[in-house]
Amino acid sequence: MSRIVVGPFNRVEGDLELRLDIEAGQVREAWVNVPLYRGFEQILAGKVPMDALAITPRICGICSVAQSAAAAGALADAQDIAMPPNGAVAANLILAAENLADHFTHFYLFFMPDFARPIYADAPWYPTISDRFQAMAGSAAREVLAARTGLLHLTGLLAGKWPHTLAIQPGGTTCAVAAHERAHLSAILAGFRLYLETKTFGDRLEAIAAIDSMDELRAWMAARPPHASDFAMFLHLADHLCLERLGRATDRFMSYGAYRQDGGHLFAAGVWDGGVGDLAVEAITEDISHAWMSGTAEPIHPRNGVTLPDAERPQAYTWCKAPRLGGKVVEVGALARQMVDGHPLIQDLVAHSGGNVRNRVIARLLELARVLIAMEHWVRAIRPGAPFCHSGAMPDEAEGVGLVEAARGGLGHWLRIQDGRILTYQIVAPTTWNFSPRDRNGVPGALEQALVGAPVRPGERSPIAVQHIVRSFDPCMVCTVH
Amino acid sequence: MSLLCAEGPDLISSLELAGIRLLWHPSLSEASAHELVDLLEAIVAGDEPLDILCIEGSLLRGPHKTGRFHVLAGTDVPMIDWVRRLAARARYCVGVGTCAAFGGMTTAGPNPTDACGLQYDGSQMGGALGAGYRSLENLPVVNIAGCPVHPNWVIDTFMLLAEGEMDASALDEFGRPRLYADHLVHHGCPRNEFYEYKASAQEHSQLGCLMEHLGCLGTQAHADCNTRLWNGAGSCIRGGYACINCTAPEFEEPGHAFQYTPKIAGIPVGLPTDMPKAWFVALSSLAKAATPERLRRNAVADHTVVPPGGKAPRGGKI
Which residues bind Mg(2+) (chain A) (predicted)? Predict the structure, then answer.
């Protein structure tokens, strides 16, 4: 057996190091270390509650709006205030634009370039994939940056800028939309749709969203040449490399529910554990047994949690706490959202091969189609002239919870206010779930489980299969260790 | 990540046009893990030249001056030590964002990680590299401060550096490129007419000036946000919320709530930097007395309820 340390990873946001035990050409055991501590929860304590809107987005330059939306949600809960319909729709649009930009960036700039590495140079598909996806140099990179920039013009219009906007307030959004601006929002979405339909999918978004089984997906592949679109190229590549056999974690999935609408969500909240069940938010705890943190040995609910770093803690190996749902490891992200929401294609794929590298990527691409269609509806639902924002007083004593779905999965903010100031503020980020360390029972986190069995070629210092698995989660490490 | 939104042209094309070859970028490069560590070691050894070192994020000195709050993965060496080694080899050293420049948001509150900027600790010179640091071209750290940075502040700075056109005179008192820091956010503010007449928004989403009640520091903030514009045609104020002066050292601790304007005797404490207070008060009270009904009403509405009048100015035809 040998042990290697892999890092730093790029094309993930932030800092990540893996320790891998390797035996017989496979990863036998993995430890995930996030070697950075930020201290935002300590910074928030003692601040005026509304300052969370300026502070928490700055945790991250890529999940900034998600942090903003979770903070606004927690403050709205504390104030017992709701957004008017226009504000709710605008907030959904601002968050959706970030989430889609992230999915899009992940596929083209973070995930696919690994298949253009020289290690694959002998593969029959290599010339096509390399021409299209090579980091910086492939034909996709410039196009994708331009298309992404175009999509984020929506954020410029509705929220002033991306990232780090103060446009999402507890009671709504700060920028009312006139009729001609609503038309411009539609035009921005049409531009992005055009790119997705011509390059990403080579098909109508509605047709992609309607693929409802693995057989249908096979039929869709068979109906066009392998290089017909980037999605088609990926599916063929996934078949060649058997990406459905790589990176299986717990197959237990959680979603807080994404994009509030009509008293519920566009994508339902819940848990998948062999079947869909209700989400018991009260059953969430954080365990610090293997984190450089001081505190009680008992895992505690984030409402009662604190964050006190302790670099000397024995047995610890990361700055990341270990969140658990009812004591169990869950996976979050696009795959989890689509499983919990009951999308038939995703459920069929997972029924056959579980949560894995291929299925995570397909779920993300499916969301590009499903969410853009929803965004077009939301834009049409804006009523110029009707209010976008309500105001309300902040109580001196209150509690609040804000739960949203960032691109990478469920993001929760738990806030307690005392004497008009923040008493405690706890954040559990998506990658805190996915890249958590072992808990006090020694159960490894989702990535730690997903890495077991990953093939390691002779002489590999940073195994390519390990890189595919890590990036399939689209991790954000800076949020993880806020 | 804001840099990826560069436009006219896209980021990759912009760099190419400036003649800049990226040695490594955390979001764009292929090289990962040991490939990056090998590259960094080659730079430190002097085997690979480094023209521009760009650092994002504050430098963490804690806990207890060990730097262990931020260790570069795969190396067991604190990031702050890597940055010092690399900075010694760089022709130019650039801090991208307010965290790298001055410490930024991570230094707020009790500054739990003992964070600082490359060459500043808040508004004091020092930081990770020390006040005396000069890059190989004899420049202090170039501080592209902003939280976030405008992508084209970065591109413009790179282009000037690549052309050898950025010397000490191109930087302001805090090392910020004057190409954007010689402007105020107030310049080009679309709410200027409301500002002139002190017709103020009372609540979020209203059209009036954000300075009197909602915490706007645009008259003091050094940046060209309302003339360069963000993500198409945006800016904080165009988005309906306050400028919080994010290009300034210590913006993270304004001494009051971010979205609230503290006042003494009804007068905002943070007045335009170079305007005598007595004049401001006198002009404000005159302006308030003269506020047209149109602005008074529009200031507290979320869309224009009274359009500008259609009558030709008195004096007849032009």
Answer: 41, 427, 482
Return the half-sphere exposure (C-beta side, CA atoms, 13 A cut-off) of residue A199: 16
CATH number of the domain bearing residue B132: 3.40.50.700
Nearest C-alpha in B relative to A149: B5
Specify whether B21 is located in the same domain as B123: yes
Nearest to A412, CA basis, from A424, A434, A427:
A427
β-bridge pairing B267-268 and B263-264:
antiparallel
In a shared domain, residues B146 and B203: no
A177-186, A295-304, B133-142, B263-272: the lowest-pLDDT one: B263-272
B142-144 and B90-96 beta bridge pairing: parallel
Instruction: Give pLDDT, residue A450.
Output: 98
Number of domains within chain B:
2
Q: How confident is the model at residue B68 (pLDDT cuts 50, 70, 90)?
A: very high
Whether residue B98 lies inside any domain: the answer is yes
By the CB < 8 Å criterion, does B240 face chain A? yes
Does A392 reach chain B within 8 Å, measured CB to CB? no
CB contact under 8 A, A172 and B232: no
Residues 17-46 of B with CB under 8 A from A: 22, 24-37
- pLDDT score of B316 more than 80: no
Instruction: Please indicate, yes or no, whether residues B191 and B280 belong to a single structural domain of this protein.
Output: yes
3 state SS of A36: strand
Radius of gyration of chain A (CA): 22
Q: Establish if A316 touches chain B: CB-CB under 8 angstroms.
A: no
> pLDDT-based confidence at B312, cuts 50/70/90?
low
Q: Write the pLDDT tens digit of every residue in A193-209.
A: 999 999 999 999 999 99
Q: Is residue B306 part of a domain?
A: no
Q: DSSP letters of chain B?
A: -GGGG--SS-HHHHHHHTTPPPS--TTT-S--THHHHHHHHHHHTTSS-EEEEEEESPEE--STTS-TTBEETTTTEEHHHHHHHHHTTEEEEEEESHHHHH-GGGGSTT-TT-EE-SSEETTEE-TTT-TT---TTS---EEE--SS--HHHHHHHHHHHHTT---GGGB-TTS-BHHHHTSBTTTT-TTHHHHHTT-B-SSTT--SBSTTTS---TTT-BS-HHHH-BTTTB-TTTTTS----TTSTTTT--SS-TT---EETTEESS--TTS-HHHHHHHHHHHHHH--HHHHHHTTSSS-SSPPP-SPPTT---
Cβ-count burial B163-192 (b if 16+ within 10 Å, e if not): eeebeeebbeebbbbebbbebbbbebbebe
Fold classification of A2-480 is Cytochrome-c3 Hydrogenase; chain B (1.10.645)
Residue B279 sits in the same domain as residue B235: yes
Any binding-site annotation on A320?
no
Q: Is A63 annotated as a binding residue?
A: yes
Would you say residue B308 lies in a domain? no
Whole domain around residue B141: which residue ranges?
A: 2-181
* Mean pLDDT value across residues A10-39: 96
Residue ranges per domain, chain A?
A: 2-480
Chain-wide mean pLDDT for chain A? 97
Q: Can you tell me the ipTM of this complex?
A: 0.97
Sequence-ordered strand ranges (E) for A183-341: 253-255, 258-261, 264-267, 270-272, 276-277, 284-287, 322-325
- Name the pLDDT band for B318 (thresholds 50, 70, 90): very low
One domain, residues B51 and B192: no
